[in-house]
Amino acid sequence: MSPTSRAVLGWISTIAAFFVFLTYIVAMGMASALVTSTQLASDLMSSSGRPALGAFYIYSRDTAFHVPVSLWLLTSVCILIFATCFAAGLRSRDEFFSSLKKLSKAGRITSSSNWLVAMPLISCGLYVVVLIVTSILELGGIPPGSLCDPTINQCPTQARLFAGLAYAPVGEELAYRIITPLGLVIPIRIFWRRLITNQGPSTSKFLSITGLSLLSPERAKRKTGYPTFATNGWRGIHWLEWIFIVISSVLFGLAHIESGGGTNWGVGKVVTAAISGFVIAIVFVAYGAYAAILLHWFFDFYFEISLVGGSTFGGPFSLLPFLFVLTSLIVGALSLLVAIGWVVRRITPRPSPTTYKTPEPEALPIQA
C-alpha cells in the first residue's frame, strides 16, 4: 500500500471510529435520561424481577435472585457499570486520542490500540458479519428466530425488555467469560508450574493474581511475566485460552435456544451467537472484562436505547435508530474490507528482493 493510500485510509478509519464513539456517548446519555425522566422510568420503578446469576457456563432461571429486584435499580446499576467500563476503556493501552492519532497514520488498529478506538471498528465489523451469516442461514432454511414472537408466547413489556437487555451484557459475561475457566487460565498455569517445579508466588500473591485474572487476563499476564496480547499480538494468547475461547463460544451459542429461556430464537441463532461469543471471548482475553461487557453492550443494549429513546423523545431523536444502524453498516463494511486486505497481504507470498550487481567494465585490449 502506497503512503498516500495508507494516509487516506487512516483518516477515514479515524473519522469513522470517532463518529461511532460519539454515538456511544449519545446512547449512554439517552439511557440515563430514559431511566430518570420518562414514563419508562416509572414503569421500571413499578416492576420487579429476578435476574439470573451465572458462573462457569451456568446461566438460567434456576440460578436467579431469590428476592425480586426493582427493575429500575437493576437497570440503573447496569448503566453505571457501563459508564465505568467506558471510563476504563478511555484509559486502556494508549490514551484515546493518542491511539486515534496512530490509527490515522497506520490505517488499521493494532494489538496496542486503545479499546474505544478499536471497539467501533470491531463491533461494526462483527455486526455486518452477523447480518451476512444470518442471511446465508435463512437462505439455507435455518431461521435465526426472534427475541420475541407474540404468536408463540407473550412478549415482555417494554420496561422488562429494556431492563433485560441492560442486564444481559453484565450477567452473561459473568457466566460465559469472566467467572469461567477462561478467566482462570493464568492461575491454572501458575498452579501447574508449581506442581512441576515446586516454585511459584506466595499464597497471597496467587490469590491477588487470581482476582486480577478474572477481571483482566492481560494485566495478570503482565504481572506474572507471561506473553501479552499488547506486546506479542496473537502469540500472547495461550493455547489453553484458545480451547476455552472455543468452549465458551459454543456454550454461549447453545444458551440462546435453551429450553425455557423465555425467547424464541431458532437454530440459526446458535451460529451467530457463537460467532459473536468467539470475538467477545478474544476481546476479554486481550483487553479485559470491561471490553467484553462493552462489546456485548453494543449488540444487546446500544440499539435498544436508540429504539426506545427515538420513540420516547421523538423529533430528531426518532432518526437515531436509522442513524445507528446505517453508521454500523458503513463502518462495518469498511472494517471488513480493511481486515480482508490485511489478511490477503499476510498470506500472499512476496517476491524475494534480488540484489543487482553492477557489472564491472570490460578491460580494454592492450595494443602493442
In short:
This protein has 368 residues and is mainly α.
Which labels suit this protein?
single chain; 368 residues; mainly alpha; two-stranded antiparallel sheet; globular
Cα radius of gyration in angstroms: 25 Å
What order do the strands of the largest sheet run in, or round the barrel if closed? Answer: 1-2
Q: What fraction strand?
A: under 5%
How many strand segments? 4
Mean pLDDT, rounded to whole units?
86
Major sheet details: 2 strands, antiparallel
- What's the number of structural domains? 1
Structural class: mainly alpha
**DSSP helix fraction:** 55-70%
Stretches where pLDDT is under 50 for at least 5 consecutive residues are none
Count of DSSP-assigned helices = 14
Order of helices and strands: HHEEHHHEHHHHHHEHHH
Distance between the termini: 59 Å
Globally, the shape reads globular
Could you explain how this protein is built, in words?
The chain is mainly α. It has one domain. It is built from 14 helices and 4 strands. Strands 1-2 form a two-stranded antiparallel sheet. The longest helix has 35 residues, at 3-37.
Layout: helices, strands, pairs:
Elements: H1 3-37, H2 39-45, E1 48-49, E2 69-70, H3 71-91, H4 96-106, H5 115-139, E3 145-146, H6 158-178, H7 185-197, H8 203-215, H9 217-224, H10 229-232, H11 239-255, E4 264-265, H12 267-286, H13 289-313, H14 320-347
Antiparallel strand pairs: 1-2, 3-4
Helix pairs in contact: 1-2, 1-3, 1-4, 1-5, 1-13, 1-14, 2-3, 2-6, 3-6, 3-13, 5-12, 5-13, 5-14, 6-13, 7-8, 8-9, 11-12, 12-13, 13-14
